[in-house]
């Protein structure tokens, strides 16, 4: 809204300056900064703690009467609800009568035709005060930050509890862990961290840390010494590996990576691609058995992605293929199948076909909230489609950013793309390049925090790094691991980061994005 991107002629000011883009204050280098910093201020704890006072002024007991006078909150009488009802003066003849009397206590006004027009102009130009909803003071909002100061708050112990590495879990198989899905919500039947190795051996590792957020009310300190992840007993005891091994043949030319797998939000099913017959398949994590084969592409399926889930577990699944197309599917949480109808589960139809790429699709991300699919082809570029299949735009990276490999998109509308040889770009959803950087690592996994403010990366160097997403400012470097990172995910409370390692283990890190929040650093 601050940029005249269409080049409209908006006129010339008296000082002969052409009216074009909005002039920004010196603290905002670009319009995106202006919006971001204003949002940071408006959504800050400081504003949240004062919000009740604003409600009192606009909707509450300080809107009218003596309290409004004391708060210097008095406006022109015509702006108040009920002071005049123009809709009641509907008779055009009545409007023409020059001397009609209308009573408005405590004064009597002579409403001539000109006066009515003046009232209409006043309301149209200056608006009207909202309805008064409250006649008592609104209670203040409790602040998350204030927990730090409660005498018995678990946050007193946060320094003891905040070692970087919580635990390392080594699987008997030494196969690299190429996919990690942390579906840890307490209401799930099995809160778990599901892992899949390069040899397609999966594990459902139970999550124990569901008593509450570490460092928040309701969290039991008695639980603090317990490790949050328990290895899948069938893997640990080597007793039921047949229930955990996917044996169906994949195409030999497929490189197994994190994009080959999707785990449903309830941890009950794994979707796997890369099969020679151009399908992707659904397997039960309980039994390891094949439950559905989905056809639709003309060549091998190379990548899969899942959107956030709706209530009931429904979500979108996107499949990308060597045939240079993507197909958008609907996963039914009720029936546990691709498609709406269990009677036609053998031949489900895609919701949309997404075209525009000239090469094999290698990475994809889908956001149901924005209704967008962002995908990258082996030799570029990245394309933005709607979930109905319309191609919106191409995201053209800067020079040398030619081969996209990883994509992460936030519901705020920012898209992080990792290209070969350590190059990152941050695009707005309108295709504007907001930031770029180059790092000295071959990155294998990226993810954004739930608010889209922070980016976490890991790669062959075995180092987890945290960045500010808007400008790629480095916030933190975790201690290096003894193997490369292949995959990562965050627990539901955004407090634990789980990485899959090339050595066949997973590492759980403590992570607290508040540590790098400007307000937390400056005030607490």
UniProtKB/TrEMBL annotation:
Keywords: WD repeat. Residues 1-141 form the BEACH domain. The keyword Oxidoreductase does not apply. GO terms for biological process: intracellular protein localization. InterPro entries: BEACH_dom, BEACH_dom_sf, BEACH_Domain, NBCH_WD40, WD40/YVTN_repeat-like_dom_sf, WD40_repeat_dom_sf, WD40_rpt. One of its GO terms (molecular function) is protein kinase binding. The keyword Glycoprotein does not apply. It comes from the Eukaryota. GO terms for cellular component: cytosol; membrane. PANTHER family: BEIGE/BEACH-RELATED, NEUROBEACHIN. This is Neurobeachin. It comes from Piliocolobus tephrosceles (Ugandan red Colobus). The lineage of its organism: Eukaryota, Metazoa, Chordata, Craniata, Vertebrata. The gene is NBEA.
């Amino acid at each position: 809204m601050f940029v005249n991107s269409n080049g409209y002629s908006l006129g010339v000011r008296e000082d002969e300056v052409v009216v074009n883009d909005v002039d920004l204050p010196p603290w905002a280098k670009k319009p995106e900064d202006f919006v971001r910093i204003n949002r940071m201020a408006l959504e800050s704890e400081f504003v949240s703690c004062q919000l009740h006072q604003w409600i009192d002024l606009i909707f509450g007991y300080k809107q009218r009467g003596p309290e409004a006078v004391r708060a210097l909150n008095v406006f022109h009488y015509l702006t108040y609800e009920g002071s005049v009802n123009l809709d009641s003066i509907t008779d055009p003849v009545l409007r023409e009568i020059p001397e009609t009397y209308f009573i408005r206590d405590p004064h009597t006004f002579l409403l001539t035709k000109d006066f009515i027009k003046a009232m209409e102009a006043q309301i149209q130009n200056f608006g009207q005060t909202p309805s008064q909803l409250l006649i008592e003071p609104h209670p203040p909002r409790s602040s998350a930050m204030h927990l730090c100061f409660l005498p018995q708050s678990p946050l007193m112990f946060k320094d003891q509890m905040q070692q970087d590495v919580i635990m390392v879990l080594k699987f008997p198989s030494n196969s690299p862990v190429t996919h990690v899905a942390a579906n840890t919500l307490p209401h799930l039947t099995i809160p778990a961290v599901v892992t899949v190795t390069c040899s397609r051996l999966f594990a459902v590792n139970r999550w124990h840390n569901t008593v509450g957020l570490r460092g928040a009310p309701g969290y039991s300190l008695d639980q603090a010494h317990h490790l949050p992840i328990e290895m899948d007993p069938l893997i640990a005891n080597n007793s039921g590996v047949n229930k955990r091994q996917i044996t169906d043949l994949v195409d030999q030319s497929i490189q197994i990576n994190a994009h080959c797998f999707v785990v449903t939000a309830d941890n009950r099913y794994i979707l796997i691609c890369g099969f020679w017959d151009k399908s992707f398949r659904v397997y039960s994590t309980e039994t390891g058995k094949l439950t559905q084969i989905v056809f639709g592409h003309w060549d091998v399926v190379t990548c899969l992605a899942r959107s956030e889930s709706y209530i009931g577990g429904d979500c979108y699944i996107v499949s990308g293929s060597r045939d240079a197309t993507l197909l958008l599917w609907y996963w039914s949480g009720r029936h546990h199948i691709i498609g709406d109808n269990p009677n036609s589960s053998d031949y489900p139809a895609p919701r949309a076909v997404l075209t525009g790429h000239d090469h094999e699709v290698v990475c994809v991300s889908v956001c149901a909230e924005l209704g967008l699919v962002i995908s990258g082809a082996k030799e570029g570029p990245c394309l933005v489609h709607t979930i109905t299949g319309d191609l919106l735009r191409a995201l053209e990276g800067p020079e040398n950013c030619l081969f996209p490999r990883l994509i992460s998109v936030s519901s705020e509308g920012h898209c992080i793309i990792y290209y070969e040889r350590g190059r990152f770009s941050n695009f707005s959803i309108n295709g504007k390049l907001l930031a770029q950087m180059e790092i000295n690592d071959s990155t294998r996994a990226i993810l954004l925090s739930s608010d889209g403010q922070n980016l976490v990366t890991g790669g062959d160097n075995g180092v987890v790094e945290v960045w500010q997403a808007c400008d790629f400012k480095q916030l933190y470097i975790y201690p290096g691991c003894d193997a490369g990172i292949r995959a990562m995910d965050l627990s539901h409370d955004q407090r634990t980061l789980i990485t899959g390692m090339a050595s066949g283990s997973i590492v759980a890190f403590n992570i607290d994005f508040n540590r790098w929040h400007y307000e937390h650093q400056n005030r607490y």
